[in-house]
Design a protein that fits this description.
globular, DUF594, 4 strands, membrane, mainly alpha, DUF4220 domain-containing protein
């Protein structure tokens, strides 16, 4: 084929290829965009979704421009294409407009996209204007009126589709999300420290009396499940009122661990739908219902299911004698596959209604079981061992030329563990033990929320010897305990399987957070510590070119020998910690301590991560830390907004506890007494006589 014939072929088929390419992208997004909820999705497939999300609009606009140029050529040279195919090609313009509106399953790829909703309104106006202009200037007055009617129906759907996207982006913008949630009510005369004490006394008493979940019927179970799976105010950093916290806590402990974990998954899935898709949500107890959005969704649902069918019928009954066979086939593909991609999103609209949603979730549970929740893993020493492999060493050498070796070290050795549910159950038991055995008042409640290994060391009587390791800055403690855990695994490989397994998984996850998401680990965490530690391990292993990268035992021994001989540094401190742990005398006790410390560190980090960061991470499937934060919130512990608004304690502990217990007794026996509170004056410390008056009725 000569160059001129290839150019002629491209000019002849360019429009068809572009239109069909746009169709393929929209179908791909309709089918595969929902799987980006999975955190274990391979980067290559996530890249394809991102590329389709960005490239879909560009390809559709390019196809419209090609259509316009093609019609201008026809007007100048009537013999350029045949008249029938000319009219048929113009019918593709409203279909391209539908493609520009995007899919129900993806409105934003990143949370920052939602803040650009005003810009997208202008984009939608320009897209509709250009498409209408191309259509009106290209449509022949002598064309079949049935084709014109089909085009008008498709235009109506396309216009709705284009303006649906900025509407969805505005609804999911952070400021709009904040105003849609119900904050805690205004407090005017309430003594906050007494109300907090009352909540703690009620919660501790409830958990102690309900250590095992009761037997519930389906209606009760569904009620508690729906309460916990509503959109959580965690993501906008709102603190719940204490009464709401107590109700959520009761719902959580009424459910078994498996059902409670399913509630967490549903809640995160619903939040993902609000922020990153066009799906409209029903009213729940935390948020205001968007009546305008609901009516718009119902209207668009009716248009989606009826207008394309009517257009297909009109196309089939129109005259086709003058059309080219290839254009007829392309038009059929466009109409049917566009309708199919619309129908794929129809269940999402249909099952957003509450009673149908239950049926859909039951259907999905048994026919399409959900994949396990994955926990990201990164081993500091394991990454250093892998870096010695030829393929990674070459990659690091290339990255060094572009100052990207630190970034590559973060990626080498990253993997995922499917034990998210098991770790969540372990965190749930930790919180439960806290309510039963430790939390007695406000002070102990705050202490429990601030523990990052102290409780485990106290419980096992080794705080005096090991306490120094958790008193260092949090990011330094993470590195020391992470390396010490690897040392213990190497020297004590036959420890209790459950404790050692989960200790290692949490250890690797916390190191992953430090290397990849330091802002989520703790504000102010230093990723440079990870880079420095990683480089130090690589330097230790550099001289062993004769040792196979697979001989990990020999390489680990070299690292330990280096740590023993060092006088300072993180390796030396990690070895001192590992030595002290191994000298506890009992492997079971050692792994109980290590596992307990890591669970506390995980909760410590989860309670200090901003809700915005949790919401932002949902675009790539979410971080496992979000599960832990949500569980802590529902279990009645403090999370980020609660820690920022701690009340100042002014009353003596005994007096505060006695007042709280009186309030609980009064609530349980409303006819016995009435508690009357005086107003809390922030400038004047209240006296005991001003705090509460007990009046007999």
């Amino acid at each position: 084929m000569s160059l001129s014939s290839a150019v002629n072929w491209w000019e002849e088929w360019q429009l068809r290829i572009l239109v069909l390419g746009s169709l393929v992208i929209q179908l791909y997004l309709a089918i595969f965009a929902p799987i980006r909820k999975s955190p274990s999705l391979l980067p290559f497939y996530r890249f394809l979704i991102w590329l389709s999300y960005l490239g879909g609009d560009a390809l559709a606009i390019y196809a419209l421009a090609t259509l316009f140029n093609r019609q201008k050529k026809l007007q100048c040279h009537p013999s350029y294409v045949d008249a029938g195919s000319h009219d048929l090609e113009v019918l593709w313009a409203p279909i391209l407009l539908i493609h520009l509106g995007g899919r129900m399953t993806i409105s934003a790829y990143n949370i920052e996209d939602n803040e650009l909703w005003l810009r997208h309104i202008g984009v939608a106006v320009s897209q509709v204007s250009v498409t209408v202009y191309v259509f009106t200037t290209s449509w022949s007055p002598s064309a079949d009126k049935r084709l014109l009617a089909a085009a008008i129906l498709l235009f109506v759907l396309g216009v709705f589709r284009c303006f649906e996207k900025p509407f969805a982006l505005r609804r999911a913008s952070f400021s709009n999300l904040v105003t849609s949630f119900h904050p805690a009510p205004w407090t005017e005369t309430t003594n906050r420290e007494v109300v907090l004490e009352k909540y703690i006394q009620e919660a501790a008493d409830f958990v102690q009396r309900n250590q095992d979940p009761p037997t519930l019927d389906m209606a009760e179970k569904q009620h508690h499940l729906e309460r916990l799976s509503n959109h959580d105010m965690l993501f906008v950093d709102f603190a719940y009122a204490y009464d709401d916290r107590f109700e959520k806590l009761k719902s959580l402990w009424f459910l078994d661990a498996e059902t409670g974990f399913e509630a967490l998954r549903r809640g995160l899935s619903n939040t993902f739908n609000i922020i990153y898709t066009k799906l409209w949500q029903v009213r729940d107890e935390n948020r205001d219902v968007d009546y305008l959005g609901g009516m718009f969704s119902i209207l668009l649902w009716n248009i989606t299911t009826t207008f394309p069918i009517a257009s297909i019928i009109l196309f089939h009954v129109s005259k086709k004698e003058g059309y080219r066979g290839s254009d007829i086939k392309v038009t059929c593909l466009l109409l049917y596959i566009t309708y199919f991609s619309e129908i794929l999103s129809a269940p999402e609209r249909l099952f957003s209604i509450k009673w149908r949603s239950r049926l859909f979730k039951w259907f999905a549970r048994f026919l399409c079981p959900r994949p396990p929740v994955m926990v990201a893993q990164h081993s500091l020493i394991g990454g250093g061992l892998l870096a010695r492999d030829n393929k990674y060493s070459i990659l690091l050498s290339i990255g060094k030329c572009f100052k990207g070796q630190d970034f590559l070290r973060q990626l080498i050795g990253r993997c995922y563990s499917p034990e998210g549910e098991g770790i969540t159950s372990m965190v749930r038991d930790h919180v439960k033990d806290g309510w039963i055995f430790y939390i007695r008042d406000v002070e102990s409640y705050w202490e429990f929320n601030d523990f990052r290994g102290h409780l485990s060391l106290q419980h096992n009587g080794c705080e005096e010897n090991l306490g120094w390791s958790i008193e260092k800055p949090f990011d330094e403690s993470i590195i020391i305990w992470h390396v010490a855990t690897d040392f213990c695994i190497h020297r004590k490989p036959n420890g209790p399987s459950v404790d050692s397994k989960f200790a290692r998984i949490i250890s690797n996850y916390m190191m992953y957070l430090l290397s990849a998401k330091p802002e989520m680990l703790l504000p102010g965490s230093r990723i440079t510590l990870f880079n420095t530690a990683s480089k130090e391990i690589s330097d230790i292993l550099q001289g062993d070119d004769g040792v196979s990268p697979l001989d990990k035992e020999q390489l680990m021994e070299k690292i330990i020998n280096k740590a023993e001989k060092a006088e300072a540094g993180f390796l030396h401190e990690a070895w001192l910690l590992a030595e002290a742990l191994m000298q506890l005398g009992d492997d079971a006790k050692m792994w109980e301590v290590i596992r307990g410390v890591w669970v506390e560190m995980l909760c410590f980090s989860a309670g200090r991560c901003r809700g915005y960061l949790h919401a932002k991470s949902l675009c790539i499937g979410g971080e496992y830390l979000t599960f832990v934060s949500l569980l802590m919130s529902q279990a009645g512990l403090e999370i980020f907004p609660d820690k920022q608004q701690r009340v100042k304690l002014r009353l003596p502990k005994e007096q505060r506890v006695s007042i709280a217990k009186l309030m609980i007794e009064e609530a349980n026996q409303p006819a016995a007494m009435v508690l009357v509170f005086g107003e809390e004056n922030a400038a004047t410390q209240p006296s005991a006589s001003q705090d509460v008056v007990v009046a007999e009725v």
